[in-house]
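Question: I have long wanted to understand how a fold can be written as tokens. Here is the record:
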Amino acid sequence: MKRDINIFEFPLNLGLTKKDHEVEPGVRKLPDWLKKFDFHKRISPHRVFRLEAPKYAMSFDEESGVRNADKIIEYAKQQAELLLQNYDKNVFNIILGGDCSILIGNAVALRKIGNFGLFYLDGHTDFIPPHLSETGGAAGMDLAIVSGIGHNKLTDINGLKPYFQEDNIFCCGNAETDDEEYVNQIINSQIHYFDLENLRKNGFRKTAEDFLKIITEKQLDGFFIHLDADILKDEIMAAVDSRTEDGIDYHNLHEILTPLVESPKCFGIEMTILDPDYDKEGVYTRPFADNLIQIIKNKED
């Protein structure tokens, strides 16, 4: 059955710590930037929703150990409300960030709907507690937060902790494997973890199909895809906050995403971290938009 598409714009950048040369992280410009490449027009959504984000700050919250925690929590609640007000199981949702902390609000909404899985495609695991974070940025801890790790004010919004069960999560593509303490956090969890090397060994399409088997076997209500642009090789995607040299290419991305977006159980996909300030000519954004449109629209054909 053909599904309509809704686009949600969540241009939040409070989860990132700004670099010395920045006034603020440029990821909040992503939805408007994608419009310049006709992303919205070519997707042809049924409806477009937008939730304006608070003004950028770098306030450190001593209670949680996370920067801007209170503003991120309030925004997450508003996100969840907007998603729930417009929820339709027959609609595929494209959610445009912003930084990775938008996952929190999306996760709260999904937990209210039911029991969902998460397919997490990212060049980093983002699975660390606040005390291991060098920056205190929620965008580097978002997978941990939605799994229930961290202070309750972030992990237990509306008493819904955890938003995703660890054994219903696939985390794929981490290219930063040198820091043993960092990697051990996820190795010692119940998350199905495929660093970049093991993702290649297991196979991109097979990894997606293995995840879909779990969704079916556990009779979950559905699943959600997180796509951080920094999972792509630096040569094809350098417009990100935290660059890594190695990564996947667009052929790999098609392989892994196609079976997921084709599934009627897929609630949708969020796209994060692509920073227009690092791509003034659209050298990286244009192929990113083209490939995502092709992947998503193929689902509709």
The mean pLDDT is 96.
